[in-house]
Amino acid sequence: MTNLASPEDGLADVENAKMSIQDDGSDSSDGGTTFSSVGMDRSSSSSAGDSDAPEKLVRRENQYILATRVIVVLLLVAAAIGTTVFIYRYAKTNEEQDFESDYQAVATTILDSFNTDITLKFFCAKTLSAIMSAKHEEEVAKDLAVVAALAEHGIEHEAKAAPWKITVPHSQFLQATSEAKWLINAHYIGYSPLLFQESHREEFETYAADYQKQNGLFFETDLSEDNDDVNQDAIGWNASKGLFVVDPSSGEVSSAPTLDSTNETVVPPFYSPLWQADARSAQISPTMYDQASDMIRATALRQMIDRREPVLSETFLRNTTYYDTYFGASDPVPGVYMHFPVHTLDVETGQGTGIIGSVVMEFLWESFLTSIYPPNSENVHIVIENTCGQTYTYVVNVENQIGDYKEHRMVLVGAGDLHETKFDDYVQSTDYGYFGDVVWFSKVPSLDEEHESTLESCLYRFVVYPTQAMEDQYISNDPVLYAVVTFVIFFFVSGVLLLYDHIVRKRQKKIMEAAARTNQIVSSLFPKSIRERLYRQQLAFSPSHKDDSTIRSHRSMSGTSKMQLQSFVQVETGPSPLLLSSEPIADLFPSATVCIINIANFSAWSSERGPQQVLTLLEHLFYEFDSIGKRMGVFKLDSLGDQYLAVAGLPHYRHDHAELIVKYAYRCLKAMTMITRKLEVTLGPDTGDLRARVGIHSGPVTAGVLRGEKTRFQLFGDTYNVAEHVCTAGQPKRIQVTEQTADLLKERGKENWLRPRSEKVDLKGRGVVQLYWVHPHANEAATRSTGYEYLPDDGDSILDDSTSQLPGTPDEFKGTSQQLDRMNRLIDWNVQFLYTLLENVVTARGKRSAVGVAELEEFESKLEKQKAEGTLVLDEFTEILSIPKFTPDGVDAERGILDPLVKEELRDFVTRVASTYRDVPFHNFEHASHVMLSIGKMMKRIVEPEGIEYDVEGVSEETRSIEIARQIHNSTYGISNDHLLQFTSVFAALIHDADHTGLTNKELVDLKVPLAEQYRETSVAEQNSVDITWRMLLEPGYTHLRRCIYSNAEEMKRFRELLVNAVMATDIADKRLNAVRKSRWNDAFAEAAPSSSSSDHKMFHDDANLNENRKATIVYEHLIQASDVSHTMQHWNTFRKFNARLFEERYVAWLKGVAEEPSVGWYKGELGFYDFYLVPLAKKLHQCGVFGVSYHEYLHHAQENRREWETKGEGITAEMLAHCQSKYPHGLASVPGQTTVEEGFVDEEVDC
């Protein structure tokens, strides 16, 4: 079940309060030391040189071993790291060298192949160029022979062997090119004449047309119309039509333009028609296609003409319409044209005159290399670069593999240099334009000396880079593996070497930890000198030192050592005959002062709270007492329950021990005042009113160690006993000292601190003695200005705050500033308690959808309208409440965060509810808060019966939490997980007596007040309380608060039902409601009668879920009822306090003439109330099965209080009557604010 209120809530305020406590009027003896906060480090407050003795001993013992261990470990680590790094670097270097070596071999082979292949290609072109030149020489020779023959006959004839009129028989041409094409992987080989004049074009076209008529086209493909693979539009073009061009975008074939129109394209202008070609890969012969119409070819041809040497063109992409038309393919594959010049000779001189044409070859880069690729060449990048700014990247793929033979092919990666940049330093490349001796042999010697080239040709180079795949073949994780294995070996060896050291160190650590813990305990129990003697004595009688000489030598040692400490912690627990035979450790201190601090009314206060809250208070108080004592040099002897024992003057004597202990007690009382008032916010009502009484006595003290299984430092003698009796005879908030202590204070010049009691006190064992009240610095006005009530003018006043002041003062919070402060603390606690429960409600609700504000306000208005139409609160009473079924949504959910406005509205609401409580002695705001406190205590104790499986195995932590929550839900009828029910129970306690007049419902009916008529003379006070506070809650100023309590109409309806049932449960006098409760109890919990008739036990006919809801409703109402009268089942003092207030309230009702004089029948009435309601109610709590030990506690207190009342009740009744008579000597006129009976009922409703 979720905690209703955490003791830790608000403890930060306690820390701040402790920081604010100052030493008022400290003199030079204590230096004006201030109190420290509880949050200070406890070790920092220990005496110097005491608590750190084991640590010093451990440091001395382990210093050398630790240094040696560190050196050995460092050496092992250094050796492991050094060896590991060396092996890693050695293996890594070998891999890198193998990788670089293989890459260089592959790159060198590929580059050599490039140089070889480019040279081979140029030589093939040179051979074809020589054939064409030879053919031209042959034609020139024939023409010269004709000229000579005609000249012999006197006929002049001009030599007309035009250079473009060169045609090698096609079969001869194919024979020359077929082997070359296979050898150099040329895609196309052809011859193209150069025509520099328009007349040359006309003559060539005439020559070509005549040649075509005589010999046909240079084409071997079937050109019939039935062949679908042939572009029929292009077939129509033949040599008779002359030169043609192909439009690059549309593919349209047209006649080549004249030279005049091509000046902007080719400068100087020329024609370069394809004439003879090995074009078997083409679908249509490109004969007569003008190469000068293509920019890339034209540029290369111009460079060839200018430089008079073979050239390579820019890289082109084979994706133009020319290739679509004539080769049936337009893949964007990069390629290059090679143009080799064909030279001519002068017909008369036989000297070279220039270039008459060119041999053109087309290559694709992907098939450029013809040589066999070296192994592993598929793992490199080949980058082809030229001086024209073009770059392409290729990889080598294996196209086919037969056995060990692999057929490779270059595959385009993309345009640009796309090699992996991490391998930039591994570059291997050829030089730009390296063509061997081909260029030299291709020049025209007779013209080279006179001609200067003005154009730069496009030069190429091959660059080879390795890839990651190649590196991965050599660079592996083996070096890391070798390094790890080496390190593991070192680690294992080191582990073996250090294993023994670890075992020894672990054992030594346990010994030293035990010694440190023992020393801490001993330090808190014994003075330093006593501890030293204990160490020496324990060592002397250790089993390891049985030799008499050793015992004598160690007895003479004045300081502790490693051997002493080890012997002390190793000795067996419990008294041994050898140890008990030694002389006890004990000393007589002739003069010391003993102080005993006891919390007044602590038993009654603790009976109203749970164990955690009780311990929270004691821990805070005693820790602060410890801190004060350590700073001042006061030795704490012991604490037992709520009693704290301290002493000054031992083990080291100091002459001011009496003065010191009085100052110490004064500071402790001040600290307690501040701490309890701050803790009231978390620990509930009356916490801030707790005060302590102090008893002090000075005299001789016997102090020593009582050895045994639980060895302790003890005080013995009459001084301790007298101090205990003086404390018992004291009064809250006061320090009482004996005459012996008073004499010591007088010797110190502190007579002004003392004030003798007005009467002497009979102390047990001492007879009648004079005691003194003591107040440090009582003559200083500054002390009294602090507002700390310490020593009233009437030194004999024994009234406690809890009885002299009533919290919950009426309406306007009338009273002194102390009463107002107490009321504010009470409100703060109510707010914090409700706020914590409200957080649980929001957390459990989670992300469930909420309706809009308008819809919820409509439902609230509808409910108010029903009230206006005469619906009473009692009409909404539900016999069986519905408890939500278990859902895992809220299990381990994040805690809900509320809007800060919610807490502001909650505080304002609680304050206004408190203002509705009238100035009546019993049914006031303090009583409502006491009921809330009791509900919180009982709600915490709603636990599951035996059988809950907390150790659910084989499941996740989330599933385990859900299963445990489910079991608890089922065993508590769903109340443990119903956070709205928990909040409403406390909310109902807050409002259940709002506007209570101090009269019973019967008396209100008899008086015929308007409220009685309004509520049909039934549960008048309870219905009125619900109506007043409900209307208040629905005010616009509490919108945020309401939205946290309920988020939709269903939740609002259920909250209203729970609230009505809870408040109606406090009316235990209504016969109809009691009949319903009795019947419901019998249906749910009564045992079946022996009769077999089903009508005798109705519960067995109910649905199981309905019966669970019935039980939950009973538990809920019993929770409220038991809490409403919980003061009767708590400590006797608590019962006395509230019983006296109830008696006074009934006495005031008698004064008003509406009730009998309460002392008549009060004694027997209380006995009957115990016998017929309280004891049975406590037993029913047990039968409910969900309240845990609350049943035993409540029943025990009820029975004890009844026995006490039976013995003392008549006398107590007489005392209460006498008190009321003295308080109200003038009858009704003495009641504050009222002089007549009617005046008490002028305002039947509180103005909200």
TrEMBL record:
The keyword Transcription regulation does not apply. CDD domains: CHD. One of its GO terms (molecular function) is adenylate cyclase activity. SUPFAM superfamilies: HD-domain/PDEase-like, Nucleotide cyclase. It is found in: Membrane. The chain crosses the membrane at residues 66-88, 480-500. Gene3D superfamilies: 3'5'-cyclic nucleotide phosphodiesterase, catalytic domain, Nucleotide cyclase. Residues 28-51 have a biased composition (Low complexity). One of its GO terms (cellular component) is plasma membrane. Residues 593-727 form the Guanylate cyclase domain. This is Receptor-type guanylate cyclase gcy. Keywords: Lyase, Membrane, Nucleotide-binding, Receptor, Transmembrane, Transmembrane helix. InterPro entries: A/G_cyclase (IPR001054), Cyclic_nucleotide_synthase (IPR050401), Nucleotide_cyclase (IPR029787), PDEase_catalytic_dom (IPR002073), PDEase_catalytic_dom_sf (IPR036971). Residues 1-54 are annotated as: Disordered. It comes from the Eukaryota. GO terms for biological process: intracellular signal transduction; receptor guanylyl cyclase signaling pathway. The keyword Transmembrane applies. SMART domains: CYCc (SM00044). Its main location: membrane.
